[in-house]
Amino acid sequence: MAKVYISGIIDAPVDKVWAYARDFNGHGEWHPLIAKSHVEDGLPSDQVGCVRNFTLTNGGHLRERLLSFSDLERRFTYNIIVSPMPIENYVATFGVKPVTEGNKTFVEWMAEFDVSPADEAGIKEKVGRGTFAEGIKALEKAVTARG
């Protein structure tokens, strides 16, 4: 099983970051890889079981199901149902915690998935650096632009 873990610091209070990031379908507003996104069946984006259906800027199509969600822990977990990547059993968790010195936010995004040995390095790079790290940078930009 392949594992990816990326973390970062956002220069904004944790409540502000979570208020923005908690929307499971909100990634279309701030993540540079997302062209368009919607939650299927009109369900709320914080309802466990809801499915976000989205298209990437490169034309790829994904569907992801929300497996758990906690405002108390400021964390959610989801899995991929449909992906253009050659992966299986993908489960990811996104969460934020307060950094008390400086009133900043610690962000962590991690995933585990099955992938062939031949594809593992490339997929880990795509998920880790290309999706998670770029997403954390873009989230900070979006949150701080809100003022």
Strands, count: 7
Contiguous runs where pLDDT drops below 50 for at least 5 residues: none
The number of distinct helices, counting runs of at least 4 residues, comes to: 3
Sheet having the most strands: 7 strands, antiparallel
Cα-based radius of gyration, to the nearest Å: 15 Å
Structural class determined from secondary elements: alpha+beta
Strand arrangement within the widest β-sheet reads 1-7-6-5-4-3-2
Assess the beta-strand content as a share of residues: 35-45%
Helix content: 25-40%
Shape: globular
* Fourth-level CATH superfamily: START domain
- End-to-end span in angstroms? 41 Å
The level-1 CATH class: Alpha Beta
Please, could you describe this protein's structure?
This is Polyketide cyclase / dehydrase and lipid transport. Pfam families: Polyketide_cyc2. InterPro entries: Polyketide_cyclase/dehydratase (IPR019587), START-like_dom_sf (IPR023393). It comes from Bosea lathyri. There is one protein chain. By secondary structure, the protein is α+β, with helices and mostly antiparallel strands. The protein has one domain: Alpha-D-Glucose-1,6-Bisphosphate, Chain A, domain 4 (2-Layer Sandwich), CATH 3.30.530.20. It is 28% helix and 44% strand. It has 3 helices and 7 strands, in the order βααββββββα. A 7-stranded antiparallel sheet has the order 1-7-6-5-4-3-2. A hairpin with a 4-residue loop joins strand 6 and strand 7 (104-115). It is globular, with a radius of gyration of 15 Å. The model has no long low-confidence stretch (mean pLDDT 96).
